[in-house]
């Protein structure tokens, strides 16, 4: 099978939902800024892009009506470039990357952009179905057949995160400590300029936005202990969970033939693309078997991987992943994670890949693995080799 190369991978800085630097930017314009930067930085002829695959979770309001196509129409790409929008929940743009790589590996396309965009300010999480249910237009995404099969009225990520915390014996204090460390690592990365190469500055009515604005400096365990739990009697809180964030990200994926034709210098080679699914009620534990399968299919061991990006949807998720696999915590989310930097839902997949690949290059290391828990009990895992 042919190789697929990531020639460039970029992200916007994360803007805090409802109060951050991106609240006045239409999500299509947000995504377009990344598309423009991808072709500008690679020098690829925009007309040579054969498809744009865009991850987005809440496809309503300003993120409705062929949202992926709207990113193209808002960008400098010609209107001859097609696009599609996909929803794999939190892994949407990671799955976009998988689809893009698969198109290239199959030989059916040579240059594909995988991207994601989500404004959690302008299109609130769940608004694409909650408003309909509140208006009496149906019961929501889960029909009675699913409710009867799984003994629930709806699937809750908050409940799943709490179940995992309880299963692995994580106290609230331990999860708060993990969260505090995420903020500290992110602050250090910002201060050192670690994110400078991967971030696309975005023009806003209030000026150019280019620094993640959700990172909290000087936090304490004592202050975090005052925050109310998300479930009665639980240990999961807003302080040890990912932040609602506005943002966009993307990767330009090319074949070997396109690399030669356009004289491109790839940043990474795709080693393995894996997707698994399991318990939809616990939901968020699936990155563990996804990682195991990805390593097995790649013929690799955990120790072969230099850096890991495991999405910090909640502190209990990467903590459980570390404990179950016996991974080295020093290799995990070295520049902080979604607890500090935010989780712009459909944009988080290629966002984490941007951070992973640029961190590999900055440290001179070779292999990286990214995995993401997703609604419905699904998980993507991607292994890349830095070049």
From TrEMBL:
<dbReference type="InterPro" id="IPR016039">
    <property type="entry name" value="Thiolase-like"/>
</dbReference>
<dbReference type="GO" id="GO:0003985">
    <property type="term" value="F:acetyl-CoA C-acetyltransferase activity"/>
</dbReference>
<dbReference type="InterPro" id="IPR020616">
    <property type="entry name" value="Thiolase_N"/>
</dbReference>
<protein>
    <submittedName>
        <fullName>3-ketoacyl-CoA thiolase @ Acetyl-CoA acetyltransferase</fullName>
        <ecNumber>2.3.1.16</ecNumber>
        <ecNumber>2.3.1.9</ecNumber>
    </submittedName>
</protein>
<feature type="active site" description="Proton acceptor">
    <location>
        <position position="373"/>
    </location>
</feature>
<dbReference type="Pfam" id="PF00108">
    <property type="entry name" value="Thiolase_N"/>
</dbReference>
<dbReference type="InterPro" id="IPR020613">
    <property type="entry name" value="Thiolase_CS"/>
</dbReference>
<dbReference type="InterPro" id="IPR020617">
    <property type="entry name" value="Thiolase_C"/>
</dbReference>
<feature type="active site" description="Proton acceptor">
    <location>
        <position position="343"/>
    </location>
</feature>
<feature type="domain" description="Thiolase N-terminal">
    <location>
        <begin position="5"/>
        <end position="256"/>
    </location>
</feature>
<keyword id="KW-0808">Transferase</keyword>
<keyword id="KW-0012">Acyltransferase</keyword>
<feature type="domain" description="Thiolase C-terminal">
    <location>
        <begin position="264"/>
        <end position="385"/>
    </location>
</feature>
<dbReference type="Pfam" id="PF02803">
    <property type="entry name" value="Thiolase_C"/>
</dbReference>
<feature type="active site" description="Acyl-thioester intermediate">
    <location>
        <position position="90"/>
    </location>
</feature>
<dbReference type="InterPro" id="IPR002155">
    <property type="entry name" value="Thiolase"/>
</dbReference>
<comment type="similarity">
    <text>Belongs to the thiolase-like superfamily. Thiolase family.</text>
</comment>
């Amino acid at each position: 099978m042919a190789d697929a190369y990531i020639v460039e991978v970029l992200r916007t800085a994360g803007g805090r939902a409802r109060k951050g630097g991106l609240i006045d930017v239409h999500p299509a314009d947000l995504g377009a800024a990344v598309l423009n930067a991808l072709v500008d930085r690679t020098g690829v002829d925009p007309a040579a892009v054969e498809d744009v695959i865009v991850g987005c979770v809440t496809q309503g309001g300003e993120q409705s009506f062929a949202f992926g196509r709207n990113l193209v129409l808002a960008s400098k790409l010609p209107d001859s470039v097609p696009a599609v929008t996909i929803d794999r929940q939190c892994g949407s743009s990671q799955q976009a990357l998988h689809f893009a790589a698969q198109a290239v590996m199959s030989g059916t396309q040579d240059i594909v952009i995988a991207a994601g965009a989500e404004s959690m300010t302008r299109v609130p999480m769940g608004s694409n179905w909650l408003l309909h249910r509140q208006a009496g237009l149906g019961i929501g995404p889960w029909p009675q057949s699913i409710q009867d099969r799984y003994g629930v009225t709806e699937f809750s990520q908050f409940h799943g995160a709490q179940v995992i915390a309880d299963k692995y014996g994580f106290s609230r204090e331990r999860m708060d400590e993990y969260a505090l460390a995420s903020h500290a690592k992110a602050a250090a990365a910002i201060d050192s300029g670690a994110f400078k190469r991967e971030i696309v500055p975005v023009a806003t009515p209030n000026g150019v936005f280019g620094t993640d604005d959700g990172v909290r400096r000087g936090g304490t365990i004592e202050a975090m202990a005052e925050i109310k739990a998300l479930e009665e009697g639980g240990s999961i809180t807003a302080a040890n969970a990912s932040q609602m964030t506005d943002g966009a990200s993307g990767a330009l994926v090319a074949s070997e033939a396109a690399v030669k034709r356009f004289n491109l210098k790839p940043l990474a080679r795709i080693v393995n693309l894996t997707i698994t699914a399991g318990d939809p009620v616990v939901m968020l534990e699936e990155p563990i078997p996804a990682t195991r399968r990805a390593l097995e299919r790649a013929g690799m061991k955990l120790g072969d991987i230099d850096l890991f990006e495991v999405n910090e949807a909640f502190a209990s998720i990467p903590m459980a992943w570390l404990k179950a696999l016996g991974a080295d915590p020093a290799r995990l989310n070295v520049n902080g994670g979604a607890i500090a930097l935010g989780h712009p839902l459909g944009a988080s997949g290629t966002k984490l890949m941007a951070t992973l690949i640029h961190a590999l290059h900055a440290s001179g290391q070779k292999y990286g693995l990214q995995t993401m828990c997703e609604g419905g009990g699904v998980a993507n895992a991607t292994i890349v080799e830095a070049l």
